Amino acid sequence: MGRTLQNTMINLGLQNACDEAVYQLGLDMEELEEIEEDAGLGNGGLGRLAACFLDSMATLGLAAYGYGIRYEYGIFNQKIRDGWQVEEADDWLRHGNPWEKARPEYMLPVHFYGRVEHSATGAKWIDTQVVLALPYDTPVPGYMNNTVNTMRLWSARAPNDFNLRDFNVGDYIQAVLDRNLAENISRVLYPNDNFFEGKELRLKQEYFVVAATLQDIIRRFKASKFGSTDSVRTVFDSFPDQVAIQLNDTHPAMAIPELMRIFVDIEKLPWDKAWDITKRTFAYTNHTVLPEALERWPVDLVEKLLPRHLQIIYEINQRHLDHIASLFPDDVDRLRRMSLIEEGGTKRINMAHLCIVGSHAVNGVAKIHSEIVKTQVFEDFAALEPEKFQNKTNGITPRRWLLLCNPGLAELIAEKIGEDYVRDLSQLTKLHEFVDDDLFIREVAKVKQENKVKFALYLEKEYKVKINPSSMFDVHVKRIHEYKRQLMNCLHIITMYNRIRRDPAKLFVPRTVIIGGKAAPGYHMAKMIIKLINAVAQVVNNDPMVGSKLKVIFLENYRVSLAEKVIPATDLSEQISTAGTEASGTGNMKFMLNGALTIGTMDGANVEMAEEAGEENLFIFGMRVEDVTELDKKGYNAQLYYDRLPELKQAIDQIKSGFFSPKDPDLFNDVVNMLFYHDRFKVFADYEAYVKCQEKVSELYLNSKAWTRMVIRNIAAAGKFSSDRTIKEYARDIWHVEPSDLKIPPPNEPRDAGQDKTPNGTAA
Fold first, then answer.
1. Is 309 annotated in the active site?
2. Which candidate in 138, 285, 570, 586 is catalytic?
3. Nearest CA to 537 among 574, 576, 575, 490?
4. What is the pLDDT of residue 758?
5. DSSP letter string, 195-209
6. I want to staple 370 with a disulfide (CB 3.0 to 4.6 A). Which of 267, 391, 481, 699 is the partner?
C-alpha cells in the first residue's frame, strides 16, 4: 500500500489546505510525509495491483472490501553491504499505525488440524486447534466522491485458554509463552515473488485469511437478510447475486473448499446446490505462467492441517473427472492432465486447477498473457469451457501514480485539457492536439528536468555520487528475477563502458543507469545479479576515462515511496523480460504515464502500450513469443552468440576473468555458467537486438524536441492503463455490478432518504 497520508489528502481534496496549515505552523509537509513508514504487505506487482484496485473501486463507488493479513513484519528492508543484499526485518508497526482501527467485536475463530467424524447427520471436523482472527480496518477513500471503503486485515491471536485446557495443567508459564505459536501466523510476509515455497506456515496463512474472510462475508450476508441473525436457516440462493469474491492468484484458493464446507457441513445444503452457489460466487485471476510459481501443495500436508478440506477437494475432483470422462471416454491422459491431484512422487494439489474448476470466470492480466493461459498453460480447461476464460488488462491508479508523485506534470496536463482526466484517464487522448505545440513541448521537458534535478539531489544525498542531471536517466526497477533480465541490462552497461574506453573522444550520449529491486532471500542467482551490478558500478563509477558519461547506481530498498520519487524522473523505462514470461507488468504503465519512453520486448502489457501509442513510439526489440517457441524447438545454444558477437564475448570474458571482482576472480562463475548452460530466459539471444535498439534510444535523446514529442504521444496514449478502466471491466463482465459516479453528500450535509440506498447490490 505504501504511505497513506498524502493519498488521503489528495482523495479528500484537502492537500492544499493541509500544506498551507502545516506551513503556517512553521513546518514542512514534505518533511512530515517522509516520516511515515511504507505499508509493504505484499511482494511486487501483485500486491501493488491490489492496492490500485482498492483505490479504483472506492473511486467508482463500488461496495467493495479488500481482505488480507496484517503482517507484523512486511517485505524486508534491503540494505546493500559491500555490494551484497542484506535483509533487515521491516518493523513497520514500531511507532504504531494511525490509519488502522482494531475491531475486536468482529473477532472470529479459525480451526486447524483435528480429525473428521462422519455420521448420519454429515461430516464433523473435531478436536481442532483454534486461532482467533482479529480484524483491523483501514479506510480506503475514493477520489473526491465522499465514498470510503474498507480494507480489513486479519491478525492472529491465541484464545485465552490456549494450551491451558486439557493437558499442560502444571506449566502455566510455558502455556502462556506458547501463545506465540498461534500468533506467528500473522508474524511475517513470505518474501517470494513468482516462486512457490511449500511451507506449513504459509499454508496456515493462506487458510487463515480465507476462513476469517468467508465467516465475515457470511455474517454480513445473513445480517442483510432483514437482520435475522438468529438460528433461522438462511436461504443462500441469492448469495452469488449479493456477493462476488475475486481470487487474487491461487493464494486464497482454499476459499473454494472452505465455502463448500460451510454450505454442506454447517448450513446443511445439498452438495449440488452448494457447488452451484460456490462456482457462481468465485472468479480467479491468474498472474503468472512460470511453472515454479504455481502452487502445488503436498496432499499429506493438507491432510494434517485441514483434513476436511482434503476430503472436499477429493470429492470436487471426483465429480470433475467423472464429467471429463463422460465427454472423453478412454482419454486417460486428459484425465491425468486435468486432475486437481498430481500423482507421481509426492501427491500434490494443483491449486490453479482447483480455482478454474471452482470459479465461473478465469482471467489473465494482459491480452498476450490471457492468450497464453488459454492456448498453453490451461488449454484443456479452455477447450472445455472457452466462455469461462477472459482478459482484464491491468492498470494503475492515476491518483497515486500521477497526481501524488508528479504534481508538476499533472498540473500541466490539467491546464491543457481540464481536471476531469483524473477520473477518466481516456481523456488524455486530447493531448494529441498539442504534440506540435512548441510551448507545451518545452513545458513537458521542463517538468521532466525539474524532476530529474530533484531526484539527482536525493541520490547525491543518499549515495554520495555526483549525478549529471542532463544525462539520460535509464531506469530498471522491479523485483530481481532471471526472467526480468536485469543481467541483459548489466551486459549493456559493460558494453557501453567498453565503447567509451575504446574510443574516449567519440561522442557518447551520457547516461545514468539506475537499477533497483529486491531479491527473494533464498534466491541465490538473484542475489548474485545484485552483487554483479554493484561490482560493475564500482568499476565504472571510478574510472576517470568515463567521468560523467556513464554512472551506474543500484537503488537500495526499492519500495512504493521510492518508486514515487524515481518514476517521475525517468527518461527511459526498461521492460525487457523474455517474451511470454511477464504476465502484464504495471511499472511499465507508471513510467509511460510519467513521461518516460519504453525500451522493451513484446511481452505483457508492453504489447498493448505499443498498440495504443503506435509501435514507432516505443523502442521495441527482440524475439516475439513465436520466436522463443521456435528457438526452444531448435534448441537454444548460448555459445553460438558468444562466438559470433565480439562485444558480448568481451563483456562475458571480463566477468569471467575477474575484471569486476579482482579480489575474487571466480566470484561470478555461477552467473556465467548459467548464461552458457541453463539460461531459460535466453539473455544472449536478445543481446544484439537490445544493444542496437539502445543505440537508437541514444540517437533520439540527442534531439530533445523529437524525444519530447514522442513522450507526449506516449502520455496521450496512456489512458487505457488506468485501473479505473480495469475495475469497470471486472465489475461489468465478472461481478455484474454497475459502477456509480454519484457523489455521496458529505457527512455534514443532510441527505435525502432516497440517497441512503447503495446503488450496487453486490459487494465484491
1. no
2. 586
3. 490
4. 42
5. -----HHHHHHHHHH
6. 391
* DSSP run (H or E) holding 656: helix 646-657
> How does DSSP assign 81-116, residue by residue?
ETTEEEEE---TTTT--TT-EE-GGG-EEEEES-EE
- Is 586 catalytic? The answer is yes
Cβ atoms 267, 277 nearer than 8 A: no
Task: Look at phi and psi of residue 49 and say left if phi exceeds 0, alpha if psi is from -120 to 50, else beta.
Answer: alpha
Return the closest-CA partner of residue 434 out of 413, 452, 448.
413
Residue 205's nearest CA partner among 261, 127, 153 is 153
Neighbours of 439 (CB within 10 A): 8
Region for residue 113 given its phi and psi (left: phi exceeds 0; alpha: psi -120 to 50; beta: otherwise)? left
User: What does the pLDDT read at residue 227?
Assistant: 52
Which of 279, 405, 288, 357 has its CA nearest to residue 44?
Answer: 288
Contact in structure between 483 and 577 (CB atoms under 8 Å): yes
Strand bridging mode 472-477 / 511-516: parallel
Per-residue pLDDT, 757? 38
Contact criterion met (CB below 8 Å) for 552 and 532: no
| C-alpha cell read off for 261 | 464446507
Amino acid at 615: E
Instruction: Give residue-wise pLDDT tens across range 319-365.
Output: 999 999 999 999 999 999 999 999 989 999 999 999 999 999 999 99
Among residues 378, 365, 288, 285, the alpha carbon closest in space to that of 584 is found at: 365
Distance of CA 711 to the CA centre of its chain: 26
Q: Which of 3.90.25.10, 3.30.160.270, 3.40.50.2000, 3.40.50.1820 would CATH assign to domain 43-228?
A: 3.40.50.2000
Whole-number pLDDT of residue 566: 98
Alpha carbons 692 and 10: distance in angstroms, whole number = 43
**Cβ atoms within 10 Å, residue 433:** 12
The owner of cell 473454494 is 256
Give me the catalytic one of 308, 309, 484, 531: 484
Q: Which residue among 279, 287, 485, 549 is the active-site one?
A: 287
pLDDT digits (tens, 9 = 90+) for 504-528: 999 999 999 999 999 999 999 999 9
CA distance 19 to 28: 8
Task: Look at phi and psi of residue 153 and say left if phi exceeds 0, alpha if psi is from -120 to 50, else beta.
Answer: beta
Residue (of 312, 295, 195, 213) closest to 253 by Cα position:
295
Active-site hit among 152, 348, 478, 531: 478
Enclosing H/E stretch for 391? strand 389-391
User: All 3 cell numbers of residue 690?
Assistant: 537490445
Question: What SS3 state is found at 550?
Answer: strand
Give CATH for domain 447-717: 3.40.50.2000
Domains 43-228 and 235-392 are alike in CATH topology: yes
pLDDT at 744: 84
551 φ, ψ to 5°? -130, 145
Contact indicator for 71, 41 with CB cutoff of 8 Å: yes
Task: Look at the pTM and tell me if it is higher than 0.85.
Answer: yes
Contact 685, 623 (CB under 8 A): yes
Q: What pLDDT was estimated at residue 752?
A: 60
Domain boundaries along the sequence of the chain: 1-36, 43-228, 235-392, 447-717
Among residues 590, 656, 713, 720, the one annotated as catalytic is 590
Does the annotation mark 287 as catalytic?
Answer: yes
Q: Cα separations (Å) of 397 from 151, 187, 192, 424, 690?
A: 17, 29, 24, 11, 30
Under 8 Å between Cβ of 690 and 488: yes
Enclosing H/E stretch for 476: strand 472-477
Q: What is the fold of 235-392?
A: Rossmann fold (3.40.50)
Residue with cell 511486487: 44
Does 479 qualify as catalytic in the annotation? yes
Sign, CA dihedral 320-326-331-332, equals positive
Residues of the chain with pLDDT under 50: 753-763
Give me the pLDDT at residue 228, please. Answer: 53
Which cell goes with 500? Answer: 567509451
Residue type, 155: S
Q: Which helix (H) or strand (E) holds 87?
A: strand 84-88
